[in-house]
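Question (not urgent): is this output format expected?
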Amino acid sequence: MFGMLKVYIYNLVWFSGSFFGCVALLFVRPFINISSLDYGVNAFVERAVGKMCTAVCGPVEVRGVENLPLESEPCIFAANHASQLDIGASYYLDRRYKWISKRSVVYMPGVGMVMILGRHLLLDRKGGKSSIKRMYEQANYWLSSQNGGNGCPIFIFPQGTRCMSNRLPFKDGAFNMAINNEVPIVPISLSIPNNWWNDFYPFVSSKRSIVMTIHKPISVTKDTDKERLREECSKVVYSVLPPVP
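Got this back:
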């Protein structure tokens, strides 16, 4: 019962925070110095809402911060995906990035505003090859110097969907993008304790925490073997996660 209540509060904060954050940014943008509307959404609205959502469930421990590339360096963050908590926890990177997500999320209250105003990459799973081509074109834009000389990282769950019961193989998308643009891949491991939703946190302090491990970047060039790259990234991401029951 308590777990259901936390899920409800998490989603309420996510939806309402996204909506009111975007509305507030639209009102104050003429009076503050930000380079673009999507920068404001990425760097301020999303980060604040993501951290507020996660705070409902428990603390987040970040390991390997020293492995993060420079903020000015485009890269691909590739993480495992087991729960919607992964999304909130990812904002503890304290970096701006573009999500790759299914297009249907634009119909979620508030979240849709974030995805559109934040100029994230939306994949229509029913759109066939044309949708995939458009996604790669957008990825190339953000990972290159075409957008004013300041590349923006991309965050992706290479599994393609979330799953807690087993470790799904990584799909090709992230690795194609990295090779096409010769940008490094930063493997990220997100470890969420079992039965996390049913903890009585924040009413009772918890000794457990969500652990986000940032691994050393994997260098990528045009000549990088995609299969080896995918295998290496998968092995690194899963290396610090507990065994699947």
